[in-house]
Amino acid sequence: MLPDDAVDRIAEGCRQIGALCKSQGIEQWEVVATQSYGHSIDIEAGKISLAAGGGEGGYGVRVVEDGRFGYAYLVDLSSAEYALKQARDIAKASPSVAGFVLPSEQPAEKVGGLFDTNILNIGPEDLLEQADAVLSEVASLDQRAVVTGGGLGVGASAGAIYTSEGIESSGVTTSHGIGVQVSIDANDELTSSYEGDSSRKRLEQVPDCVAVAVDWAQKTRGPIEVNTEAHDTPVLMTSEGFSPLFSMVVPSAVRGDRLVRSESFWSGKQGEMVLANDLSLIDDGRMEGGKSASARDGEGVPTRRQTLVENGRLIGSLWSTRDAAQQVAEGRIEHAQTNGCAVRGGHQSPPYTGCSDLHMTSTRTGSSQDALLERMEDGYIVHSVMGAHTANPTSGDFSVTSSTLLRVEGGEILGPVKQAGLSGNLAKALSEEVYLGDDVRVQGSYSSGAMHLPDVLLMQGLRINPA
Amino acid sequence: MVMSASPNDDHRPSTGRYLNQSKIQSALDHAQELGASYAEVRLMAITDSSVALRDAKLERAIPGQEVGVTLRILADGAWGVHSTTDLVSLPSQIESTVRLAKAVAARRSSKDAPVQLAEVPIFEDEIHWKSKKDVRHTDLQTKIEHLKTLHDSAADDDRIISVTCGWSDEHLHTELMTSEGMNRTWSFQRSLINASVTGRDGGEVVSYRTRHGGEGGLEVIESCDLGQLGEVARIATLRLLKAERAPSGKMPLIADRDLTGVYIHEALGHPCEADLVAAGDSCLDGKLGQTIGNEIVTVVDDPTIRGGYGAHPIDDEGLNTREKCLIKNGVLTEYLNHRETAHHFGLAPNAGARAQDGLHHPLVRMSNTLIQGGTHNDMDELMEDIEYGVYACGSRGGQVDTGRGSFQFAAQEAWLIENGELTRPLKDVSVSGLTLQILKDVDGLTRDAQLAAPGFCGKGQTVPVGDGGPIMRISQALVG
Lengths: 467, 480
Known about the structure:
A: alpha+beta, PmbA/TldD fold, 2 domains, nine-stranded mixed β-sheet, B: alpha+beta, seven-stranded mixed β-sheet, 10 helices, globular
């Protein structure tokens, strides 16, 4: 899948652009490159509908002169001179940020588990076999169940960074992912569930998420009648249901620039209690096998594991180089510096501040789902929500809809509910009575980073509005 | 690793074409010799720029050029696809991509029909939708000045603590060559300006977003009174600081054009996409010709509306675009389709294929989707007999479960309606419902239908869309 010289080629391309920067006398510069290769299979209507492969990549160049920065990206080295001109022109039009310089070289220790040779050896035929196995598994679990959409894929991505400040780093990461939309359409009722999984390592031939998708398509059939009055209620959100909301709201709230600009619901609360007193938030940029982990961040600074909220108290925040310099220069904070939290959306984006692998943990021992239900007594289990992207990251307010939820009374599951609205304020709900499950699962996110979350029982702060 | 193409003034090769036509033709012929029943090469070159201003200071400006090409081969009734930024390597991928398609076909069960494509007219031509003011010739300073106008108006109050304004423009150039002899080149532009406004009053923090944009160049931005756009955003933000949380429950709802557009996009447009219908993931499966909505509801999807953010002259399978009438007076009349699904359902192809860029294969997508106007004169007329309800406006986005037929969309702001009058401002209003129920509950539309603010639609790939309609009343909606 990955050409043997993929890393060498992009590293050499970075050096060529760097040499051009030097020859033009550019004060500071940073060249990044990405090149990814992969195979994928699409599944529709219970069958493999398409097999695809390919690769893409390019270069991005950031120039900094007198605290001003400009950026441009390109796909073809022969247009590097033109891209540099564009970046320099932009820098001239940009405001000078006092103290903003590109980060200098610091040694960075490798992070393990980001590369799996086994993935490189997966060819299209292997993926087709895996797709067949998934389809067979779904049919064997429930003859009515059909994979109506989704697919699976493998990829390898080479990346490199080369800067005027002596940073020169390159490497390869791998990924293997699957997503399946399972539907059961019978007796004039259609239920469905989407589940996915991905990893830096080779996944099992049939990952657990496949059975979970079938299970939720099954157990949301035959909705029961419930009180349709809107009411406040405890809600047990599965990791899959909670993660989209959490990822919309929480990572942006711990960005240093947003905190000091009063754009976070936790602004002005540094050192204060913001979560329930057993909860902590940790961003681990060095997590072995982490989906977003790496030795260096998006601008070459060594990554770190850092606690942002400890036992409910806000003690940290995320910073990248320019954001830190700008907020200091504008007088919003006396001192700030990068803590290795620059992320990028590929070569087309200059670095910005974001989280890596974000964990929410509790000092309490995690509870089984049965124990959580017993504690909840009456309420709902919500497994997926629609409209999480409409949540307000500035206030923490949200109002979403779920068609994958179960009614619980007396600690027992009564049955599924056809549809319900769910609203509240996530910051408030997480600051009250919260209990975590014992099975942490990794989810993708609407923002940067990966979310490591168990099931979460929110006892207060949520309102449900069954249809 | 990457293609060889040198930028010049308009960032295109001197021939005006990226694809070497004789080489590509040979590659397509070779695919057929290897057993492909159909092969296509589609290239997309995007010259774009984005600019962001944060609190009136330039935060970032990113010019860029992307070129991607996708080879799509149909062999033994199954698809193989190869996408790359390495244009030169494409001919060498023919054999492996034919093999890929055949490997997929070999796994097809006897009960599944092979993929076939509906017949379409073959064209060899070039179509360029010229902008009045080409965005590629718009300098950074001009963009910054427009953004500053928007910013200054939006930020003009002490309670506004932050305003981020954004600009994006793109020139899209597509080349398509197929084994059937299709050889088309087309181009057009899109431009967009937006602002995100954050207000704070004591412990209360709110945000509001506004956008203006469409197909075309600088003239799209110049056609907008940016001072007014910023003022509306500022006033809305300040109003949200005083707004109450919305009531929950079923009640009459009036939606402005923005929300009407998002509603029809989510609730009807997605379930009408024939690839989802064919996959068994649409609540509209088997309902063509049936009444699914109130007779006042007529819905079209029309990529030919110049200026709409979802406008485009040719779809990504090379068909001339046209208006599709999805619902006529409450009756489901047409699915959005591409060539594969048109053949699958025995329907006429209606040019619904769109790909995000040159590295993605086309899917069935919407373009500019709107409900046509009704008979009510204005909003007052829609509101006059509502005792207790909600008027919701501005979109924060939406989502749909096409199979279950349930959807959700969120408003930027809202008002309570009491006894036919707008009374108190509300915040955090979302609306959810079931497609097949709520289309019947649309019971009032004003006369004038227009596209509203531009949007983006995600379906694995992201494409720009336009949505809109008149002001709409729904007799019973689940408000949360």
